[in-house]
Amino acid sequence: MRLLRPAGGGPSGGDEDDDAALLRAVARGDTEALAVLYDRHAGWLHARLTRRCPDQETVREVLQDTFVTVWRSAGAHRGRGEAGGWIWVIAARRLVDAQRVRARAERVTVSAEPAVTAPSAEDRVLAGLEYGEVGAALDRMSPELAEVLRATVVDGLTTRETARLLGIPEGTVKTRALRARRELRAALGSPLGGTA
């Protein structure tokens, strides 16, 4: 399979009705439809995954696993929200799984060998978000709120980009972000930076 940037340059590079039709075709076993979806979405997915994970091997594996999952579960989409958002949720979950496996393997390696290099500040922050108190608080939060918080805070997307990615109105993104910050503050027992 090829990695191509979609014509629109982002998650909504193609017509969403067309993406929904492609997903229905994939659900019926159409490999050409899967190839079109891949060509349309793999470029921006690769770029976003690379922002969250510097290991290109992991990114390639996650991208492949994402489209294998799309192939297997395309019938589950049922037209809820944008196809790009649905595919991103799959990719983000696959990345978290891959990072957990990698972290477990590194812990085993670290216990066998002394650490040679210290993780970067960004890696420590991201690990804290995924596995620390914040990650645990996000896991307890409703998926809708956690999705918005991860998109806006972790991925650094704007309200408009988040709305397009998740297939919800911008006002809903703002409301969910506000509720998510409040829940996160309550779960952590301390105020977070910024206003809610």
TrEMBL record:
TM stretches of this protein: none
Name the source's superkingdom.
Bacteria
Recorded hits in InterPro entries, A to Z, give: RNA_pol_sigma-70-like, RNA_pol_sigma-70_dom, RNA_pol_sigma70_r2, RNA_pol_sigma70_r4_t2, RNA_pol_sigma_r2, RNA_pol_sigma_r3/r4-like, WH-like_DNA-bd_sf
UniProt keyword Transcription present:
yes
Keywords attached to this entry: Sigma factor, Transcription, Transcription regulation
One matching Pfam family is Sigma70_r4_2
| Gene Ontology molecular functions | DNA binding; sigma factor activity
Per UniProt, residues of the RNA polymerase sigma-70 region domain are: 37-104
Q: Does the keyword Acetylation apply?
A: no
Ranges for domain RNA polymerase sigma factor 70 region 4 type come to: 133-184
Q: What GO terms in the biological process aspect are recorded for it?
A: DNA-templated transcription initiation
Please state which protein family the record places this protein in: Belongs to the sigma-70 factor family. ECF subfamily.
Kindly provide the name given to this protein in its UniProt entry: RNA polymerase ECF-subfamily sigma factor
Name its species.
Streptomyces venezuelae (strain ATCC 10712 / CBS 650.69 / DSM 40230 / JCM 4526 / NBRC 13096 / PD 04745)
